[in-house]
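Researcher: Please predict.
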Amino acid sequence: MRKLCTVIFVFLQTICFAHVTILPGDKSINTALLKTGTYTMAYNISYNGKWVPLGEYITEVAFQNEKLKVNTSLSFTKTNTQWTEIFVADANSFLPISSYSDRDERTLSLSFSNKVTGFYLDKKSQKKKQINQDLPKNCFDVSVYPYIIQMLPLDVGYRAIIPVFDYEATDNAKTHRIEIIEVKSDVHISDLTGEHKVWKVAVLEGNTGHRFDYFIDKTNRRIWKISIVSAKGDKIAMTNIETEFNPFKAPFDKKATLAMVQSGNAVIKGTAFARDNENEGGLKGMAVLNINKKQYAAKGTEIVLIPYTAYFKQWIALNEKQRKIKNAKPIPLPKDAFDCFKRTNVYDDNGNFEFTNLKPGEYLLVTAFGYTHTSKQTEETGRASVIVNGTYQGDEVYTSVFSYSSNATANIQKVVSIKNQGEKIEVKLKKTL
């Protein structure tokens, strides 16, 4: 019985973890899992232990007329150059139809039928080589395999081999194995949308010797990140920056919003200050007992005025929700919206500031400045036993009042409404602890 159990266990291991070979037309390729549309990835390289941005990698995926069409462009920021690739495959079998690649040093154009035809142009020498060779059977073009991976039945322990044709492979065979060597569960943290459960798919390219880790969303198969270690040990990271992310529902009208802060004749005058309640314990927070003087925002302190339209209200509400999402960062404003902020500075030692040229409407005033927080606490400094006529009556507690000072920051927001043209509003931006 023990031998039989051992045989069964080894057999199950072979079924669960053996490689499967994925060929064109394989029924395990599920096209419904491929995310179509356009997405952008930040392209970074590791240099002296730091990640250095090189550019952006933009991919457009579409199914059209029974064909899969993928356009990619890699734009390098510092050199202002761009690599582009376009490949087309049959939407059912994913057999290659055409491939075009243009880089700094060469241009490669291929067409696929029973043969591979096209040309290779060396841009440095301007030599153009015509291509006409037999097409190996039962393989994909090397450009399509990342999208094949997205459509496979990924699971923990899944392993597969994907044969590909690579015209630029260094040997004469041109046909190589892309090997999925490991699939495990992982988590990707997005700056905008927080935590996402992903499959971490480890891939080894037989044609280049490069190692890839694809972080693929378990739900929608979005590629969140690609980590690459080249055969020479260079490290590259490509991260989806979610350019399509737009949670705003309220419309934004830049012209009308700018008019609110530039084309009126109303005024907001104000004073920014903090005032401490130095009481602690049961009296903490009772402003009526506050005995500290006003501490005015220093001269030069910036005051920001935000037109409090539906759009900006939604932005604030969205960021309130962001704070509740694990590891999510604040949602930034588009530049056009950010340009509508109006700024001024405290102009004297008494925290005074002014905004002019405002139209009727709601405005949010925001500022932050440092001040000294002082407090008083009563603390026990000693005890003595009370004895009357030789009998212990209890302890007498001795206390003292101590004062403490610490640096603090006043973060203040206040909504102000202007109802009429030419109106002058006076406000207090205050923080009282």
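Model: The helical segments are 2-17, 145-150, 254-262, 310-322, 335-338.
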